[in-house]
């Protein structure tokens, strides 16, 4: 082998080695950058979730505080006022005053009921003591009482509370969605059903009124008047679940999937 | 089998170009830099096909056109021009005027070389070596700038990365082959033939990788 041949072979090898080295450095650098970007995105997502969690938690704490204040203070004062009113002897009143007394008692009873209702809405003791299914059934009964709207439930009794905070979020979503149906859908009936599957709880709220499609939901939750929907979205994110608005047959359906941790001992 | 291999190597500067051109025809690459790449492939195919035909039908051609070396010189100039344009279109090399400066220097070198030193009818090893240096320089600049560029999420997945990697390996392998082309042919003809086979294999690999890059850059249809 002469010198030229040797030089060419070494030269080619050296050049190829140089290019391989450059490529290795570039690939390593790009991978590191990609990993850093992924880590930053995960951190951003984590921060966002923490913010949402903090917002939802403080909302619940505030609701609880307001519910307690309403019940303990306003409720107590109203009950006291009712007692004092009941102390008035009806026989000593003339016709005009009796009518005023009756009206006053009626209004007082109404406001006591309303305050109790608002207090329960803000913080449901039934949810805490009897679980999600009972709370939803009770809520449906309350909203349909004396109303043209018919509501029904078909809830999976196998669902047991594992995480009370999660139940509160699910309950709040159901509350918000049913209230929206009442206000905007012009529906005559609705049904809430649930099915506990291996990995998630599948809730369906179906109504026969005018509802939202998924596209409309995506648009509305970014608008000022979409605060309730934004709340729902936040709770879905917090639960790591999904929500889907679709048109279904004669009405509209809202499908909520919430992941649940399986308890292996229940399957033994 | 020997005959088959002989034909493969004989046409090794023509048939590999058909692969990426066919991919380009079917997939219709979307980006502007890819269109420049396709333009290079078309020119390369025309030039190389003409060069091969000139070799085969040499006896029927006038004496002036019995050597196809001028076409290899032309191929080198076209390649440098079009790849400089390709890198300019990618917009990754900073400063933006650098590819044009490099092209200008290469053009000046080619002019001076053919006016004062070599004949354009003779294969210029200096020109082909200069081509390798210029394109390797642009490739390395591309790699360095891609490490700092944040406009693309991952340059490794970009079609231009495959093209640049293929081009850099091709030029790295062929730089020394063309730099010492005449001394090799003069002192060790068997090794000279081997280096030409190495060159042919490198060109085939370059064409296949270019085809892969063009396929990656295909236009996304509504059906997809």
Task: Identify the notable features of this structure and list them briefly.
heterodimer, A: 268 residues, alpha+beta, Heat Shock Protein 90, five-stranded mixed beta sheet, 8 helices, 66% helix, B: 224 residues, mainly alpha, Rhopdopsin 7-helix transmembrane proteins, 0% strand, globular
- The level-1 CATH class of chain B: Mainly Alpha
- Major β-sheet profile of chain B: none
Report the principal-axis shape of chain B. Answer: globular
Strand content of chain A: 5-15%
Per CATH, which architecture of chain B? Up-down Bundle
* End-to-end separation of chain A: 78 Å
The residue ranges of chain B in which pLDDT falls below 50 over 5 or more consecutive positions are none
Mean pLDDT of chain A: 86
Task: Give the beta-strand count of chain A.
Answer: 5
What would the CATH topology of chain B be?
Rhopdopsin 7-helix transmembrane proteins
> What is the structural class of chain A?
alpha+beta
Task: Tell me what the structure shows.
The complex is a heterodimer of chains A (268) and B (224). Chain A is an alpha+beta fold. Chain A has helices spanning 3-86, 95-122, 125-130, 132-144, 164-185, 214-220, 227-239, 264-267; strands at 150-154, 189-196, 200-207, 242-248, 251-259. Chain A is 66% helix and 14% strand. In chain A, α1 (3-86) packs across α7 and α4 (132-144) runs parallel beside α5. The termini of chain A are far apart. With 224 residues, chain B is mostly helical. Helices cover 75% and strands 0% of the residues of chain B. Chain B is built from nine helices and no strands. Chain B has helices at residues 2-10, 15-27, 32-56, 69-90, 98-117, 125-148, 159-179, 181-187, 189-216. The chains are: A alpha+beta (268), B mainly alpha (224). Chains A and B meet through α1 of A and α6, α7, α8 and α9 of B.
